[in-house]
Structure formats: structure tokens, C-alpha cells
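Whiteboard transcription, Tuesday session. T.W. wrote the C-alpha cells on the left side:
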């Protein structure tokens, strides 16, 4: 719970109330300048919600166009959070991200078209850059993004 102003009658006032202190609720509550009440039913870092576990992957390859600007903002905010945490507490580890699928996959093509990734043609045999790591069927493509990463979820709400 963040500090808030009193209304003079001893009642505390908040600009925003966030229900759920998982990764999404904690990120929403972290916005600067707002008086926020963060409510959580369970203990901090509990295992009952979708945010339990050590890590989360991030990517920018989504078919919906409205995600691309949000993901660029997300990355900037995670970079800022990492800068605040310092190098001793690694919250975000940036890593390239690669989605691979059939060349005519609508979601993959849309992710490239929306600017969330760049297209890499996957060619037969060892002629493509990932061939030494894994093989994919002929006629597939890859969508690569430098905006991938791994978030240490248990450190993120700190």
C-alpha cells in the first residue's frame, strides 16, 4: 500500500485501487504520481495466481497492431525498472525472440507487418541462421525480434 493523503477526517484517499498484487497488478500500482491502494488476498509472492514461478518471457510478436506500441513502452519501462534496481538485482534479461511457423501463418505475418518483428526466410537445410540449433519444415518462416526477454517474476514486484 502506498502512502496517501488524508481528507482531514482521518479517512485515507487514493487515486487508484488495484485488486491483485501479481505481476500485472504490481506494475499497474507502480505508476508514479498516483496515490495507490494495492489489495492482495494472499501473501506476497504466493503460488495461487498466474504470476507465480521464477520467470516470464516477453516478446513483441503479436498479430494485433495495437500491441506493438504498448510493447515498445513496456520494454522502455522494464529498462527503467532495471536501471533503478541496478545490476546486482537482475529483473529483466533482454534476449532476442524468434517465432517460427508456416510461411502463410496469418498471426506470424501480421506480427511482421505490424512492426513487432522482422521476417527471416527459413530456407531448406543449413542455409538459414538457426539451422545449427534446430530444424524446421521446408516452407516455414521465422519472425525475429530484439525486444524479447526474460523477467524474473519474483524480483519484479519488489
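and on the right, the sequence the group agreed on:
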Amino acid at each position: 500500500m502506498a502512502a496517501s493523503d488524508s481528507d482531514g477526517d482521518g479517512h485515507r484517499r487514493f487515486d487508484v485501487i488495484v485488486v491483485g498484487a501479481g505481476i500485472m497488478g504490481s506494475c499497474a500500482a507502480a505508476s508514479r504520481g498516483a496515490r495507490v491502494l494495492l489489495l492482495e488476498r494472499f501473501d506476497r509472492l504466493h503460488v495461487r495466481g498466474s504470476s507465480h514461478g521464477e520467470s516470464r518471457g516477453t516478446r513483441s510478436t503479436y498479430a494485433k497492431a495495437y500491441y506493438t506500441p504498448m510493447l515498445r513502452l513496456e520494454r522502455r519501462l522494464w529498462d527503467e525498472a532495471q536501471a533503478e534496481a541496478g545490476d546486482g538485482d537482475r529483473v529483466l534479461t533482454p534476449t532476442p525472440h524468434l517465432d517460427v511457423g508456416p510461411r502463410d501463418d496469418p498471426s506470424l505475418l501480421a506480427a511482421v507487418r505490424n512492426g513487432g518483428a522482422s521476417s527471416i526466410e527459413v530456407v531448406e537445410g543449413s542455409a538459414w541462421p538457426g539451422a545449427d540449433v534446430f530444424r524446421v519444415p521446408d516452407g516455414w518462416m521465422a519472425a525475429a525480434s530484439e525486444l524479447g526477454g526474460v523477467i524474473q517474476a519474483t524480483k519484479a514486484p519488489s
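Someone added at the bottom: The longest strand covers residues 97-102.
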